[in-house]
Every structure is written in C-alpha cells, then in structure tokens.
Amino acid sequence: SCDASLLLETSGSMITEKNSFRNFGMRNFKYVDAMKQAVESECPGVVSCADVIALSARDGLVK
Questions:
Q1: Which residues of 1-40 are buried (b: 16+ CB within 10 A; e: fewer)?
Q2: Can you give the residue ranges of every domain in the chain?
Q3: Which residues are known binding-site members for Ca(2+)?
Q4: pLDDT for 24-45, tens place per residue?
C-alpha cells in the first residue's frame, strides 16, 4: 500500500487503513480532511492524495 491510502474512507464491508482498529498511530484526520476539502475546492480534479499527504506533513509539524 502507499502512504496516501490513509486517506481512503471505509466503503461497505471494506474497512480501510484510516478506520482500522490497528491504526493507533494516526489521529486528527479532521484537520487533514479539512485541508483536503480546501485544496480540492481551489483546484478541483487536480490534487492527488499524495499532494494532500505532503501538505499535511509540511503544515502539521510543530516547531
């Protein structure tokens, strides 16, 4: 799997990485989801999941 698979939502009986009980290291998806929506509203159909992961990593760092 790729790092961007963390953004996939659960669909039907398929539970994704994002919602897996084994995913104890990732939190605060509400911020990533808000960033994804904002970027997609400005650049619809152009932004990839990898772009969202890169922006989240860059902007999520605490200095």
A1: eeeeebbeeeeeeeeeebeeeeeeeeeebeebeeebeeee
A2: 3-60
A3: 3, 5, 17
A4: 666 677 888 888 889 889 999 8
Q: Which residues lie closer than 8 Å to 10 by C-beta, 6 or more apart?
A: 16, 18, 19
Tell me: the pLDDT tens digits for 6-27?
777 778 888 777 777 776 666 6
Annotated binding residues, written as ranges, equal 3, 5, 17
pTM of the model: 0.61
CB atoms within 10 A of CB 58: 8
